[in-house]
Amino acid sequence: MTPTTSLELIADVLSTADTFLREGQRLFKPHGLTVAQYNVLNVLALAESAAGLSQRELGDELVVDRSNVTGLIDRMTRAGWVRRADDPEDRRIYRVQLTPDGRRLWEKVSPRYAAVVGQVTRSLTDRQVRDTLIVLGQLKAGATTWKLPRE
Fold first, then answer.
1. Which of 31, 117, 127, 148 is the least crowded, having the fewest Cβ atoms under 10 Å away?
2. Which domains does the chain have, with CATH numbers?
3. Is residue 1's pLDDT more than 70?
């Protein structure tokens, strides 16, 4: 791959991510949600643990910087969508859990989100989706292992 093609690839990936973020905002705003808040609801709703997740675990799962997780959870707590509970095994940790209002909101918005995702991906074959996931995984791995070139 030429350097120009590589630059085009990364520019298109970033542009696509920006488009998804903008369109996500358009989808979630009528429900009083941001994209990041929907992601929190979704991660918590799909979590296997009824005890919820720690803020660190949430940060690992979310598409937001970990430094933003506390403020995000604070705002969602004030809205009544999540709550913090003490961790029975570690007093330094809070577990973040969905409230009944948060679960109802997630149940209302998730089918709409799934319908939009279906529209966005309907022209792709299963093979294209699998191949794209592989390529995106390779890009993600490369983005976390690069080294600064020497001057």
1. 148
2. 15-106 (1.10.10.10)
3. yes
